[in-house]
C-alpha cells in the first residue's frame, strides 16, 4: 500500500514538474517574443530616424549648393557661378545610407521671393538588399535682392491728419545721397531720392511745406537722381521726393522674409526698454532683430550702435535718441510709431534706409536718415541667404507632388 502511495505521489510530482516546465517554456517564449518584437520595433525606429536624418541632410546640402555658388566644386552652377537649368539633381552619401535631391524652379507661391521646391529622399539598404526610403518636400526661398527706393520710404502717409508723419525742427535730415559705412557723404555723387511714397509724392511735400502745424522743411530733404546719360545730379525739396507704385508689394515681402529669420526681442524685455547692444551685431556680424511693440515699447539710446535689419511690428513706439546709430535697414511693418530724436550735438542716425510699410515716422531734433549703399549691400550679401521657407503639408501648403501637378510639370 505504501508502495502504491509513493507511486501516486511520484506521478503527481511528475505532472507538476511537467506543468511548471510548460509554464516556464510559455513564459520564456512570451518573453523572447517580446524581446524580438522590441528589438524589431527599436530597429524600425532606428531606420526611420536614419531615413529622416538623411532626408534632412539632403535639404541642408541643397541650401549649401544654393548659397555657395562660388564653390568651384558646386555641380549646380556654371563657370560663372550661375545656376544651371532646373530640375537639378544631387546624390550624397552619409553613414550607411544616401540622400537624393531634386531641385525644381518654382516661383508661384509665398510672395515675390526667389523660390525653389526641393525633394529630398533618404535611402538605406536593409541586410536582405531591400531599400527603404523617406521623402521630405520643402520650399527654399530668398529675397531676389533687396531694392531700396530711397533713404526714407513711406507706404501711406496721408490720412487721417491726426496721424500724419511729423517732420519737426530745423535740424533733421533725410538724405538720399550715398554715404559710406561711417556715415560720411561719398566724394563722388551717387545715391537715391530722399523720400519715396506709394501714392502722391506731393502729399509729403505739402506736409513739409504747407501743413499749418509744420514750418518750412523741404530743404532738409536731399537726394541724387540720374540723367539720361546715367550721370548723377543733386536734388532737394520736392524734386527729392518720388512716387513708387511697387512700394506696397516690396515692403510686405521684405517684412515677411526678415521676420522669419529674425531674433525675436519682443518677449525678453517688458515695458519701455532698450534693445541690448549684445544682440545688435557688429560691423562683421550683421543681425536681424524683430520686435512686436504691442508687447512693450523699444528704444535705442546713448551711444548704442546696431548693424543689420530691425523689423518693428505692432501698436507701440520705437525711439532712437541721443547718439544712437543703426547701420543697415529698419522696417516698420505695422501700426508702429517710429520716433527719431536727437538733441544738441548728439544726433540719432540711420545709416542705410528706413522703410515704413504701415506706421508713422517722427523726425524731431538733430536726427537723420542717410542712404548708404555700403550698409544696404552688406545686408544683401550677408543676410539674403536661401532658407527653408515652408515645409510642404504645413500651413495649408500642398505636398510636393500637388505643387508640381499645379505647376504643370517638373520644370516650370
Question: Can you tell me about this structure?
Answer:
By secondary structure, the protein is an alpha/beta fold. The chain has two domains: 51-145 and 389-407, no CATH class; 152-383, no CATH class. It has helices spanning 2-67, 201-209, 247-261, 373-383, 400-407, and strands spanning 88-94, 97-105, 114-125, 131-142, 152-154, 166-167, 173-175, 195-197, 221-226, 232-236, 241-243, 263-264, 273-274, 287-292, 298-300, 305-321, 325-341, 348-356, 359-364, 367-371, 387-391. It has a 16-stranded mixed beta sheet that branches. Strand 1 (88-94) and strand 2 (97-105) form a beta hairpin. The longest helix is centred in the N-terminal third of the chain and has 66 residues, at 2-67. It is elongated, with a radius of gyration of 32 Å. It starts with a helix and ends in a 5-residue tail after the last helix.
Descriptive terms for the model:
412 residues; alpha/beta; 2 domains; 16-stranded mixed beta sheet; five-stranded antiparallel beta sheet; disordered C terminus
Please provide the ordered H/E string of secondary-structure elements.
HEEEEEEEEHEEEHEEEEEEEEEHEH
Q: Could you report the average pLDDT, rounded to the nearest whole number?
A: 78
Helix-strand makeup class: alpha/beta
Helix tally equals: 5
Total individual domains: 2
- Kindly report the oligomeric state of this protein: single chain
Topology of helices and strands:
Blueprint: H1 2-67, E1 88-94, E2 97-105, E3 114-125, E4 131-142, E5 152-154, E6 166-167, E7 173-175, E8 195-197, H2 201-209, E9 221-226, E10 232-236, E11 241-243, H3 247-261, E12 263-264, E13 273-274, E14 287-292, E15 298-300, E16 305-321, E17 325-341, E18 348-356, E19 359-364, E20 367-371, H4 373-383, E21 387-391, H5 400-407
Parallel strand pairs: 5-8, 5-18, 6-19, 7-9, 7-20, 8-11, 12-14, 13-15, 14-16, 15-16, 16-17, 17-18, 17-19, 18-20
Antiparallel strand pairs: 1-2, 2-3, 3-4, 4-21, 9-10
Amino acid at each position: 500500500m505504501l508502495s502504491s502511495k509513493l507511486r501516486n505521489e511520484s506521478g503527481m510530482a511528475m505532472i507538476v514538474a511537467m506543468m511548471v516546465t510548460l509554464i516556464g517554456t510559455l513564459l520564456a517564449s512570451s518573453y523572447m517574443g517580446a524581446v524580438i518584437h522590441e528589438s524589431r520595433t527599436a530597429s524600425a525606429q532606428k531606420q526611420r530616424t536614419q531615413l529622416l536624418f538623411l532626408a534632412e541632410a539632403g535639404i541642408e546640402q541643397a541650401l549649401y549648393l544654393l548659397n555657395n555658388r562660388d564653390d568651384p566644386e558646386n555641380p549646380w552652377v556654371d563657370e560663372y557661378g550661375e545656376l544651371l537649368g532646373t530640375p537639378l539633381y544631387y546624390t550624397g552619401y552619409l553613414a550607411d545610407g544616401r540622400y537624393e535631391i531634386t531641385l525644381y524652379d518654382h516661383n508661384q507661391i509665398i510672395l515675390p521671393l526667389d523660390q525653389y521646391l526641393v525633394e529630398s529622399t533618404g535611402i538605406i539598404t536593409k541586410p536582405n538588399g531591400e531599400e527603404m526610403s523617406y521623402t521630405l518636400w520643402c520650399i527654399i526661398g530668398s529675397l531676389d535682392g533687396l531694392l531700396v527706393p530711397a533713404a526714407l520710404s513711406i507706404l501711406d502717409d496721408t490720412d487721417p491728419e491726426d496721424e500724419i508723419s511729423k517732420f519737426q525742427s530745423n535740424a533733421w535730415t533725410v538724405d538720399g545721397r550715398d554715404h559710406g559705412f561711417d556715415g560720411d557723404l561719398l566724394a563722388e555723387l551717387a545715391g537715391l531720392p530722399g523720400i519715396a511714397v506709394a501714392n502722391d509724392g506731393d502729399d509729403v511735400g505739402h506736409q513739409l511745406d504747407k501743413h499749418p502745424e509744420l514750418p518750412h522743411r523741404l530743404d532738409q530733404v536731399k537726394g541724387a537722381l540720374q540723367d539720361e546719360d546715367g550721370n548723377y545730379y543733386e536734388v532737394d525739396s520736392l524734386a527729392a521726393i518720388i512716387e513708387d507704385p511697387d512700394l506696397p508689394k516690396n515692403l510686405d515681402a521684405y517684412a515677411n522674409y526678415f521676420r522669419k529669420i529674425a531674433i525675436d526681442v519682443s518677449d525678453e524685455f517688458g515695458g519701455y526698454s532698450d534693445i541690448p547692444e549684445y544682440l545688435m551685431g557688429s560691423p562683421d556680424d550683421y543681425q536681424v532683430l524683430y520686435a512686436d511693440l504691442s508687447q512693450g515699447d523699444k528704444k535705442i539710446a546713448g551711444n548704442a550702435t546696431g548693424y543689420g535689419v530691425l523689423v518693428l511690428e505692432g501698436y507701440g513706439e520705437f525711439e532712437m535718441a541721443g547718439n544712437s546709430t543703426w547701420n543697415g535697414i529698419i522696417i516698420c511693418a505695422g501700426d508702429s510709431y517710429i520716433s527719431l530724436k536727437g538733441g544738441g550735438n548728439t544726433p540719432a542716425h540711420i545709416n542705410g534706409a528706413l522703410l515704413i510699410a504701415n506706421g508713422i515716422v517722427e523726425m524731431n531734433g538733430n536726427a537723420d536718415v542717410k542712404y548708404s549703399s555700403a550698409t544696404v549691400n552688406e545686408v544683401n550679401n550677408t543676410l539674403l541667404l536661401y532658407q527653408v521657407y515652408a515645409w510642404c503639408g504645413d500651413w495649408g501648403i500642398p505636398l510636393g507632388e500637388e505643387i508640381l501637378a499645379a505647376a504643370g510639370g517638373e520644370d516650370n
